[in-house]
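Researcher: Please translate sequence to structure tokens.
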Amino acid sequence: MSQMNRRAVLRGTGGAVMALPFLDAMADSDRNDGVPVRMVCTGLNFGFVPRLFFPEVTGPDYELSERLKPLKSLKNDFTVFSGLDHGTEAQGGHGGVHAYLSGVLSRNSRGMPEANISVDQKAALHVGVQTRYPSLQLASGYDTNNMISWSAAGVSIPPVTNVETLYNLLFQKIDPRMRDSTQAKYAARTSILDLVRKDAEYLRRRIGTRDRDKLDRYFTSVGEVEKRLTQASQWLDRPKPTVEYRLPAAANELDFVDRVPLYYDLMALALQTDSTRVITLALGDIGASYGGFRISRGYHQLTHHGKVPEYITELSVIEQFHTSQLARFLTQLRQVREPNGRTLLDNTMVLFGSGMGNASSHSNRKLPLLLAGGGFRHGEHKSYFQDEAKSQTTLAGNLFVSMLQRFGLETDQFGLAKSTLTGLEVQA
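Model: Translation complete:
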């Protein structure tokens, strides 16, 4: 049987078109690896209480920490890392959290080949136009300290915070009457960008070195916008997938505890329908109220617990919620069987953690990090603690190099990291 194109559709009478799911016939029959690798990165603004997150013993025989117990049934599907961070280049308390996926503070990105590009955006460049969205950036709320996705121009990418908007992006059908006008708008915007770029190039010849550096980044930003417009135009005539999943009424007005599962549900569907292969989810504060949690103080206040037992007890309610939701998401991915005989979790790297090591002390060192799925050999707690007297550290960026290689990029470095992470192996 010949291999079916991944973009195959069903065409009926009257012009009806329906997208197909990922069928076995779409996989490469010779190598049986035609299913793409995906990447999901979830980041918590305030991290975890370290002693409750990190296991005490390393190796495969470790016992799950209090915070990781919701993941008990998935123990062989993930790896816990101790002793990884981004070194001195990502220090700054809450202001350092945005370097979670890049390893470089935005203010220190000048002179870097790709500024402070985040690992998700590096992967998205590799995907290109293969999916409707090269990447999706999501967040539970808009928080400038928790902008974790950054472009090669050193620009933070605004996330989608409204779950109803996200649902529409993924599944709302395009009105045929609007298609032509939308196509014209895309073309007009591209023409405007061409005019702006010509003006900027003229200006570049008349300014100094520092300003030229700013303009170079500007040109890069313009190029990224053009790529997005081109991609949107190319996908305008292609049908969006049909799913049975529906959001509850007024979904975006729900409390934090009821809204977060919806992000994860839509993320799983976005991966399963191949609408995107790269997703980030930033989970920040729970808002002015207590977000539906049975607590008596704000989340931020609780993170500055000062080792007060009552504060830590209430903070644990929120932290345990996050690891429980991770377990639920990973279970969803593990239940989906793909054409290469593996599960959606096997084919999806899921990074979970934070750019904050200890919110109580505003430390960005020793980040809480967990990697699940993606075809790696899991089931261990790996420690990378170095001689602190010599201020040595293993960069979390080494983990990102390993992830990028697994994603399909031929690279030996990312940001400040110059190698893969020792001990992290891909399954045979």
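Researcher: Any highlights?
Model: The first strand starts at residue 9 and ends at 11.
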